[in-house]
Amino acid sequence: MQIGGGVFTIGCDDRPSPGMRYSEFQGFGVPHPWACKFPFGTTMSATTATHGRVCILAAAILWSLSGAFTKALTTETFLGVHAPFLEPLVLGGKNVPVQIAFYRAIFAGLVLVPTIRFGELRFRPLMIVMALVFAVMNATFISAHALGTAANAILLQYSAPLWLYLVSICWLGEPSDRRGTISLFLGLAGVAIIIGGGWDAGELFVIGIGLLSGFTYAGVVLCLRWLRDLPSGWLTVWNHLLAAAALIPFVLMLHPPTWTQFVVLFLFGAIQMGLPYFLMARGLRSVSAQETGTLTLLEPILNPLWTYLVARELPHSLTYVGGAVILIALAYRYWPGKPQSATDQAPG
User: Mean pLDDT over residues 211-239, rounded?
Assistant: First the structure.
């Protein structure tokens, strides 16, 4: 989930947002630097538009498997990889799946290490703050999947663009635009509907975790605004590996996974989280920011479907309503062919 024509004034020398999925932040408070530079040494002429769309759709499909992977590791399914019970960290009477969050992040970071160059390794103190926020985001996202429904988890994380747009106006003093404001209120209405469903089902705590995932996702992007001149591949790997390192003290307290579970966790990190970044980078060589944002809306649609096929999980009926409103808000913001307002233009 990434970015598009937004309110921050960043020119074409900026880098893509590391550790972010494309569709989450397009047009809500951050511009689309991927349209100018691409990570991992890519070039514009290397692929066709059709190939680019295939790569972007493949990335969205892989990202949509997060719920299925989490449920396979935490609940009884036909795959049988949940047994023996993967020990969680108990906090406030809740089972927090820190081991899943840890291995997902570390395996994703390790598979992306070959994409960076030694000369790109640079450090700034803000990177520590960003990595810690990223760690909270990763842990809360997985926890929202494990403790509640995958539909709520993915849709509430997709609320991040709404908070970014709000912060950009109220805190950073950036000008608003009509499409962004309409999308904001539509999206907030969708979030309120999902909260209503959680209230009815007694899952307000889990809903809060999902919202925290969206808040922290937005926080990572705000950090990236001040780190936008650093190499994107390096920051992507940094976010994942440091997020994993932050969880090591908790993981060492728990019984380790079985070898079968290690294999599933590796696939979760490498295939569901790591590979899509590479595919997205390739796709963005030839596909516009607006079209990419629309294509990646496939992720929150497929996520509950895969979860149902694996765990037979059905969300509350209000989740469908609220989710539809959020997706309509994002689709309205992302849909190609609409002219950008003056506030959406990033000076070059």
Answer: 87
Assess contact for 25 and 161: CB atoms under 8 A: yes
| φ/ψ of residue 94, rounded to 5 | -110, 140
Cα separation, 310 vs 67, whole angstroms: 9
Tokens read off for 317: 């009926």
Q: What is each CA distance from 335 to 106, 190, 246, in whole angstroms?
A: 34, 19, 38
* Whether the Cβ atoms of residue 322 and residue 193 lie closer than 8 Å to each other: yes
Q: Tell me what percent of the residues of the chain surpass a pLDDT of 90.
A: 39
Domain boundaries, the chain: 22-344
Return the top range by mean pLDDT from 161-170, 199-208, 271-280.
Answer: 271-280
| 16-30, 162-176, 250-264, 267-281: range with lowest mean pLDDT | 16-30
DSSP states of 31-58: --GGGT--STT--GGGS-HHHHHHHHHH
User: The whole model's pTM is what?
Assistant: 0.80
Q: Measuring CA to CA, which residue among 145, 79, 93, 112 is closest to residue 269?
A: 112
C-alpha–C-alpha distance, residues 150 and 76, integer Å: 15
pLDDT of residue 253 exceeding 80, the answer is yes
**Is pLDDT at 104 greater than 90 in this prediction?**
yes
Helical ranges in the chain per DSSP H:
49-63, 66-74, 98-112, 126-147, 150-157, 160-170, 178-201, 204-225, 232-251, 259-267, 275-283, 289-295, 298-311, 317-334
The rounded distance, in Å, linking the Cα atoms of 16 and 33 is 5
